[in-house]
Amino acid sequence: MPKSQPSQPSWLNLINIESVYSAEKQRRAFTFFTMISIAVVLISTLLILNYTVYATLLTVMLLISDVTLLGCAVYFVSTGRLTCVAILVLSIICVLCLALVYTGGKQNTALYWLMFYPIVAFSTLGLRVGFFVVSVLLAFTCFFLFGADIGQVSYGHAEKVRFTASFILVFLFTFIGEYFRNKSHLEIARMTLLQKQDAHTDQLTGLANRRFVSSHFLPLAKSRPEQYLPFTVLLIDLDHFKEINDNFGHDFGDHVLIEFSNMLEEQLRSSDIKVRYGGEEFMVILPKTQLTVALSVADKFREHIAAQTITFTQQQLTRLTCSIGAAQVTKIDDFNKSVKLADEYLYQAKREGRNKIVSSN
Ligand SMILES: Nc1nc2c(ncn2[C@@H]2O[C@H](COP(=O)(O)OP(=O)(O)OP(=O)(O)O)[C@@H](O)[C@H]2O)c(=O)[nH]1
């Protein structure tokens, strides 16, 4: 029976679903900025129009909040750190709401302003932190409305009960909405990742396929050359594979390809990228590896393969050899040129009798 594949080859970690996450980041950033803009305009207007009627505490709180909100927006633009800034902003607004409830605002209309809070808190802070800050606001508001007299204004009984009931309903429905939005976002992210991994995996051997090299590896190596360059490309072709198919059948041929892929995984570093490049042709990319070092790795591998016997049933077993062409890549733009060179060396190895490595060295 074919050996089982390693559970998660490291090249799979190079496949990202940044587009899914960046849409989510954009949504949160957009909500955050809209909230800050509205809050700053609103607070400034309230301050200008009502500073004569507001309690001093409320005026000072509004002023500090206005300046801090602007500072947070500037900090976010310059650092891109949304979560900690959003927590700070929502905490300020929470305190502001409580100051409003405590003092009553203009003509005791403070309670109306609290209704937006759950919506903004959940959409910028997510489920858990959002739930926490909204709960804190609700708890303190209930204390001011129904608790002991500590100097806060008093609201009518009907107003207090209706506010609390409607706030809890907004809280509940926003929580449910956010819970399912988050769940479907995670599911979309999971499915996108699985689909992308599947589209870049060779179905027979579980190695990366050729598309992975062009759509993921090369862009990644171009963006982080210090992690990958210089690297060596090995093109490896099984020798006389047609004879194996002809002598033992296609299933045995498939089994040989799987066993060969397992040996690539076992014998080479996990950071080396092993690709099924075509039928019985494989590509191995050895990151941060000069040609001379790669040649000794490849030669050891070639010897290892030649020493193995691949068994399918007791009657079906074969020896296997491979030929290898190797070339070094120092610039990503030269990748195709180097692959072409490695291909020429591979066919030179075949012409020269197989079971050997040819390179420019
Ligand atoms: N079993 C199996 N065979 C495959 C697969 N893909 C390609 N092949 C076979 O691989 C064989 C390759 O044959 P050739 O290109 O003549 O190469 P070769 O026999 O290895 O000869 P040299 O490369 O010159 O040593 C063909 O018979 C293909 O049908 C596959 O997925 N499974």
UniProtKB/TrEMBL annotation:
CDD domains: GGDEF. Gene3D superfamilies: 3.30.70.270. InterPro entries: Diguanylate_Cyclase, GGDEF_dom, Nucleotide_cyclase, Rev_trsase/Diguanyl_cyclase. GO terms for molecular function: diguanylate cyclase activity. It is an enzyme of class 2 (transferase). It catalyses: 2 GTP = 3',3'-c-di-GMP + 2 diphosphate. SMART domains: GGDEF (SM00267). Its EC number is 2.7.7.65. The chain crosses the membrane at residues 29-49, 55-77, 84-104, 110-127, 134-155, 161-180. Pfam families: GGDEF. Residues 229-361 form the GGDEF domain. Keywords: Membrane, Nucleotidyltransferase, Transferase, Transmembrane, Transmembrane helix. This is diguanylate cyclase. The lineage of its organism: Bacteria, Pseudomonadati, Pseudomonadota, Gammaproteobacteria, Alteromonadales.
